[in-house]
Amino acid sequence: MGQLLERGRRARREEDKRRRRRDLLDAGWALLQTVPYPEVTMAGVAERAGLAKGTAFLYYPTKESLFLALAAERLDAWFADLDAALEAERTCDASRLGRLVCDTVRRHPGLTRLLAVLHGVLERNVDLSTARAFKRGLLDHVTRTGALLERACPFLAPAAGGAGGAVLLLRVHALVVGMAQLADPPPVVAAVLGEPGMEVFRVDPGAMLEDTVVALVRGLEAGRSGP
Question: Residue 73: pLDDT above 50?
C-alpha cells in the first residue's frame, strides 16, 4: 500500500510539473503576441502563469530557454502541417511547391516572430544540452520533410543533380527570418517608413515570401535541367 501511495504522489508531482511548464509556455506565447520579444520578462511570464518568478526559473533557467522550447513546439506544428500537405500532394511543380510552403507558413503566423529572434537571441543564452536537444529535434524534422520534398519534386533530389530538400528548407528558413525582421520594424523606424517616399521599404511579408520562394524553386528546377 505504501508503495502505491508513493507512486501516486510521484505521478501527481510529475503532472504538476508538466502543468506548470505548459502554463509558462502558454503565458510566454500569449505575451509575445502583444509585445516585442525584448519587452517580455520572466517576471511577466510568471505573473501571467500564476506562478512566482523563482518558480519559473526552476523550469526555465533563462528567458531564452523558455522561448527556445516554444520555438521547438511551434516548429513541430509547422513541420507536421507541411508534411501532411506534402503527403497529400505527392507530386507538384515548382510553382505549386512554393505556394504550398507559403500557405503552411501563413497558417502559423506567430512562428515568424520566434524565428526572427531564434539565432541571434534564443540560441545565445542556453546550455549545451538544451541547444543539442533543439538542434537534434530540428535535424529529425529537416531530414524527414526534406525527403518528402524530394519525393514531391524529384528535381530536388541530390541524385538528380538537385540541391536537396533539406537545403531548400534552410533557404526558406533564411527568407522567413529576413522578411520577418523587415516586416516588424521598431516603432521609431515604423514611423519613418510611414513618411512619403518610403514606400519601397514597406514589406508585405506574405506576398514577398511567396514570390521569392516560387522564384527560388523555379531556379532550382531550371538549374537541374540546364543546358
Answer: yes
Q: How many helices (H) and strands (E) does the chain have?
A: 10, 0
| Residue with cell string 533543439 | 134
Q: Are 214 and 94 in contact (CB under 8 A)?
A: yes
Domains defined along the chain, listed by start? 1-60 (1.10.10.60), 63-224 (1.10.357.10)
Whole-structure pTM value = 0.84
Residues in CB range of 202: below 8 A, 6 or more apart: 193
Q: Is 93 helix (H, G, I), strand (E, B) or coil?
A: coil
Q: Dihedral sign, CA of 106, 34, 44, 22?
A: negative
Cell of 45: 511570464
How much is the CA Rg of the chain, to the nearest whole Å?
21
- The DSSP-derived string for 29-78 is HHHHTTS-GGG--HHHHHHHHT--HHHHHHH-SSHHHHHHHHHHHHHHHH
